[in-house]
Amino acid sequence: MFSTRSNELIHIEDMFENDEYVLIKAIYIAENQRFTETSVGIKNQNGDIVNIVCVDKYKNG
């Protein structure tokens, strides 16, 4: 997610969060196209996100 300099983050929101993971929705522009990506952030015992896994990605419009 957001791996190149040409990507522009438009909006990000935490849709759900608990002690183990967070469900993240991000809207961004890459290669002149708008995408929505839903990801799961896996937390460690300190509550820090240590891994983000994309579970759904689609092009808007």
Provide structural commentary.
This protein is mostly beta strands. 0% of the residues lie in helices and 69% in strands. The protein has no helices and four strands. The chain has strands at 8-17, 21-30, 33-43, 49-59. It has a four-stranded antiparallel β-sheet, with no helix packed on it. It starts with 7 loop residues before the first strand and ends with a strand.
Write the element-wise H/E pattern from the N-terminal end onward. Answer: EEEE
Rg, rounded, reads 12 Å
Please tell me the overall pLDDT: 91
Largest sheet: 4 strands, antiparallel
Helical content, roughly?
under 10%
Strand content is over 45%
**What is the number of E strands?**
4
Strand order in space, largest sheet: 1-2-3-4
Count of alpha and pi helical runs: 0
